[in-house]
Each structure stands twice: as structure tokens, then as C-alpha cells.
Specification:
Elements (H helix, E strand, L loop, with lengths): L3 H11 L14 H4 L17 H4 L10 E2 L2 E2 L17 E2 L9 E2 L5 E5 L5 H11 L11 H5 L14 E9 L9 E10 L10 E8 L7 H17 L5 E7 L3 E9 L3 H9 L9 H14 L6 E8 L10 H12 L4 E6 L5 E2 H10 L3 E4 L3 H10 L1 H5 L1 E12 L4 E6 L20 E4 L3 E10 L6 E11 L5 E9 L12 H16 L10 H14 L3 H25 L3
Parallel strand pairs: 3-13, 8-9, 8-11, 11-12, 12-14
Antiparallel strand pairs: 1-2, 4-16, 5-15, 6-7, 7-18, 9-10, 15-17, 15-19, 16-18, 19-20
Length: 547
């Protein structure tokens, strides 16, 4: 995918690499138990194409010592003024409107990450507006469940809807197009056996209840969901990485839970060695008939090791080709590297989630466990072709860092996204339509590789003008919810295209939706929007007062 090299160069800096030799060693859980352990060492208005809208950031001469940067990397924001500190995010720009006579195709890899939403939620719950670059619209939208019908055959069902845009009323003849994908569901009893390798960051920065303490509770929830035939091993890293517990059947539940409870924080952060050892353990226990996955729990800081984060990312890419995938789960606020954690999940053919409380841990490791573990389709790309006779221009909301060149849609050497069992993906487009035109609006084609076969398949779905809802109020409730979620994200990220939008409008729409639903996620979103509106108002008053 595009901008990979630029991103990698940034990551090698933003990850906070300290070029020092790590020393010391720690006893593994195996040694404590008397067993042998294998110790292995934006202003989109000026842009005319999607490609021009995505920003590529140049590397700087950043070097970290003991977790403290001597200078900031270009384009990476380190919030100050009372907000959480040392939080690293990447600015990806904002997609512009594209004229269909110039480019009728929008092509991108799917994204089922949700980390951006929960990171921003944590900011708001702590009384702070998140930095704009922390908000990735697609991860906000894909956090929510929209009740799409699961496919009867094949891995996906495609849903398309269109209605006059609620939040694009300042744009002439603007409509919102919703494209939804629903993955095949797999019953818990029917999923493959799982060989899981927990890779746990036990460095000094994790020594907090909402970090290592929450990791222990989260992984214990996961272990409680496993069945006999599943296997679990644990690698850890502080100043050194080492095998903490060899793989064993999930039926030995108490042994595994005891090992988790006894984890203690220590030392610096040798993520490179810890992740390498976790993959070595996963390789030794690899079984082609099973799910082979590394579950990384960390704050994303990597300040000890012989090479930079790019070496870690390269290693993860190599292992995924052998069938070992990665789930990256972030913990902690302040001294947290969102940029690296997102890329680890993406490169590892898995996904990225951020856990800010035990409820979110249950969502990731209990409610969505089968989807978290079992992939149903790999290298999934979406290409939406707009009809220039009907659509004047379009804008994809979010997915800026998932852009794929149109000619690479069927280039299978170019990576796509991965979708787990039962997962849904939602993509939103703002469209400007030609007045009075009739006919096809857009055709969505999804290209994917089945999890167990090498050949690629495609499915397609078309939407015509006759299917456009005449009024926003007549659009499905789940589409209106997705639009409100996207607008909330666009406001937080200070998108050029939300310059006339308000939190008040989002709050009003969410209130209407709340009457129709008792969805706890919707009610939480309404509360977050109220907090954002209050914080923005206070920020404006402070600025006006010169304070």
C-alpha cells in the first residue's frame, strides 16, 4: 500500500528506539514452577486526487534515551498543556472531493481496527479533547454494530444505501452513500482450535493498574473463553525478552491463570526481543489446521534494542506469510505510541484495539473472541466505481491510510485488510449528484482471498438512483447512526469538510436515535459528544479570555 516506506521511516523514529545493549535476565514462570523454559534469546479543498490528499512525513533525527526524546519527529504531535503526555499519533490528511471525470474509482483496503475510537473515548472521559490526529473516522464508524445481515453463502454480504446528506447540507445536492460488509459468522463451537502466544510488555512503563493490571484481567477473560484443544504460551519483555510459560492446553486453566497473576513489571522496554521470542514460540508450536496467533499487549513504547521498530514490522510481515497472525492490543494513557500499535496490527494480518477499561476488555476478548481470533478472508480490498453520468464528485470519509492505487486492486502482491468471523466493515462517501439524472450510482466490488485457499474471489453489488431514499429521515436507523459517528470523528479531527458542523447537531441526532434504541454503545457516544461539546465550549471561552 502507498506511503509504506514513509510510514516505516516515521515509525522507526516515533517508536522511540534506544541503541543500547540490554543487560540482566529474569526468571521465567517455568523456572519458578520448577519446569524447564526455552530461553530464546489537511485542507482537502486544494487537493484534486486522493493520492495528493494523503500526507507523507519525512523522518527526523529523533533518538530516545530512557524514554525521553531529544527532539520531536516531524509531523508527530506530542500534546502538552495538561493533556496526556508523550502520546504519538500520525497525521494522514483528509480525503478531498474527487471529480468522477478525473477518477471514477475509489480503492482501499478494509480496516476493522477500533483503537482510535477507544483512545479518543479515554481522552474525553479524562476531561480532555483528543489531538485531531488521534481521530481516524473509519475506526470510529467500525466500532459500532449496525446489524447487517450475515451472508447465506460465501464470506461476505454487501449492503448499499444512499440518502440526502444530513451533515452536508452546505454542499449543493450532496448525498451520503453507505457501503456495508458483513462477514460470515462462525459458531464458537465450530471455530478452529487456537494456538495463542501472549506477548506481554512488563516494562516499568506498564507498572500501573490500567496497564499491566488491566492486561492480566483482560487475558484472564480470554483464557476463560478457551476450550480444550486450544493452547496458550506466554512471552514477556522488560529489559530483556524471554519465554515465560511454554505452550500448554487450555484445559490447564489454573496454571495459565496463575502465571498471568504472577506477572510483575520490571526494567526498560526491549520490544524487539520480546516479540521475536513470541514468534519463535509460535513457530515451534505451529499447526496449519489451527489458528496461530500472537496477542501483543503493550503501550507501544520500544526504547531498548539493537534495531528500530521497522525491524519488528519486517519480522511480523515475514511471519504472517507463514500463517502466524498478530492482534495488537494497546493499554495506557500518556507515554503511548498509537502509531506503532496500529501498524503492528496491520502488518500482522490482524487488527488493532485499545483497551481503556475492563468493559472494553470483555468486548474484545469475550464478546468478539471468535472474530478476534479466526480470520475468514485475507487481503480484502474494496473498489467503488461511480457512474460519471449520475455522480459529479465523491469523497471517502476516512481510510486515508488504507488507500490503494486503483491499478493495484487486482495486484495480489499489494496487501489488503483482514476480516474476522462476524466482523462488519462500513464505508461512507459524500456524493455530489447531477440534478435529475437517473441510472446506476455506484458499483462496489470486494476482492478477497479465502482464509484456507490461495485463489482470490470477487463479489459485487450495484446501487441505482431508484434506491436512493428521498429524505434523510427515511434512511435506515443504522445508516443515520453511522453518519452521526462519522461526523463526530470529523469534528474531533477538525476536518475541513466539517468546518460548518457542530457537536450540537450530532447530539440532537443521537438523541433521536436513542429513542428508537437502547443500545449502550449509542448512549455512550451521546455522552461523549456532550463532553466534547462542553470541552470545546470551555476551550473557546478560555481563548476569548486570553487565558
Amino acid at each position: 500500500m502507498k506511503n509504506t516506506l514513509a510510514m516505516a521511516a516515521l515509525l522507526a523514529l516515533a517508536g522511540g528506539t534506544l541503541f543500547m545493549a540490554a543487560c540482566g535476565s529474569k526468571a521465567s514462570y517455568e523456572a519458578k514452577a520448577g519446569n524447564s523454559a526455552g530461553a530464546a534469546g489537511a485542507d482537502g479543498s486544494k487537493a484534486v486526487t486522493r493520492q495528493e490528499a494523503a500526507r507523507s512525513l519525512a523522518p527526523s533525527d529523533l533518538r530516545y534515551r530512557d524514554g525521553e526524546p531529544s527532539t520531536d519527529p516531524e509531523g508527530v504531535r506530542r500534546p502538552t498543556d495538561g493533556q496526556p503526555y508523550d502520546m504519538f499519533f500520525k497525521e494522514h490528511g483528509v480525503n478531498p472531493f474527487v471529480d468522477t471525470e478525473d477518477d471514477r474509482l475509489s480503492t482501499f483496503a478494509v480496516d476493522v481496527d477500533t483503537g482510535s475510537y477507544t483512545v479518543c473515548r479515554d481522552y474525553l472521559n479524562r476531561g480532555n479533547l483528543p489531538p485531531p490526529e488521534a481521530a481516524r473516522s473509519e475506526e470510529f464508524v467500525n466500532y459500532f454494530k449496525y446489524g447487517y445481515e450475515a451472508p447465506k453463502n460465501g464470506p461476505f454480504n454487501i449492503v448499499m444505501d444512499c440518502a440526502p446528506s444530513r451533515y452536508g447540507q452546505d454542499l449543493k445536492n450532496c448525498h451520503l452513500l453507505r457501503v456495508g460488509l458483513k462477514g460470515r459468522e462462525i459458531d464458537t463451537r465450530s471455530r478452529k482450535p487456537a494456538i495463542l502466544t501472549f506477548c506481554v510488555d512488563i516494562s516499568g512503563s506498564m507498572n500501573m493498574e490500567n496497564r499491566l493490571g488491566l492486561v492480566k484481567k483482560a487475558l484472564a477473560l480470554l483464557v476463560d473463553q478457551l476450550q480444550e484443544g486450544d493452547r496458550v504460551g506466554i512471552a514477556v519483555y522488560g529489559s530483556r525478552g524471554y519465554e515465560y510459560m511454554s505452550h500448554r492446553d487450555a484445559g490447564r486453566r489454573e496454571e495459565i491463570l496463575t502465571a498471568l497473576r504472577e506477572l510483575k513489571s520490571e526494567g526498560s522496554t526491549n520490544a524487539e526481543e520480546g516479540i521475536r521470542i513470541a514468534y519463535e514460540m509460535a513457530e515451534r508450536n505451529f499447526n496449519a489446521r489451527c489458528i496461530n496467533r500472537v496477542v501483543l499487549c503493550s503501550d507501544g513504547v520500544a526504547n531498548v534494542g539493537n534495531t528500530g521498530p521497522e525491524a519488528i514490522l519486517k519480522q511480523i510481515e515475514e511471519k504472517r506469510r507463514k500463517g502466524i497472525t498478530l492482534t495488537a492490543v494497546g493499554f495506557g494513557m500518556s507515554n503511548y505510541n498509537d502509531t506503532l500499535m496500529e501498524q503492528l496490527g496491520d502488518r500482522g494480518d490482524g487488527h488493532y484495539a485499545y483497551v481503556d477499561n475492563i468493559t472494553e476488555a470483555k468486548r474484545v476478548f469475550v464478546e468478539n473472541l471468535t472474530g478476534t481470533l479466526q480470520v475468514i478472508a485475507r487481503d480484502v480490498k474494496v473498489q467503488v466505481e461511480f457512474n460519471p453520468e449520475v455522480v459529479k464528485s465523491y469523497r471517502l470519509i476516512g481510510y486515508e491510510n488504507r488507500d490503494v492505487a486503483d491499478h493495484d486492486f487486482r495486484n495480489d502482491a499489494v496487501d489488503g485488510g483482514e476480516v474476522g468471523a462476524g466482523h462488519s466493515v462500513t464505508c461512507l462517501f459524500e456524493l455530489k449528484l447531477h440534478e435529475g439524472r437517473q441510472g446506476p450510482v455506484a458499483t462496489t466490488t470486494v476482492r478477497y482471498k479465502h482464509d484456507e485457499r490461495d485463489e482470490f474471489s470477487e463479489i459485487a453489488h450495484e446501487l441505482s438512483t431508484g434506491s436512493i431514499h428521498s429524505d434523510w429521515a427515511k434512511a435506515p436507523a443504522n445508516m443515520r447512526l453511522a453518519a452521526s459517528v462519522a461526523e463526530f470523528a470529523e469534528l474531533l479531527r477538525k476536518s475541513y469538510w466539517a468546518k460548518t458542523g457542530t457537536y450540537e447537531a450530532v447530539i440532537a441526532d443521537l438523541k433521536k436515535l436513542a429513542i428508537e434504541s437502547d443500545d449502550g454503545d449509542l448512549l455512550e457516544l451521546l455522552n461523549l459528544a456532550r463532553k466534547a461539546e462542553s470541552l470545546k465550549s470551555a476551550e473557546g471561552k478560555s481563548a476569548a479570555g486570553g487565558n
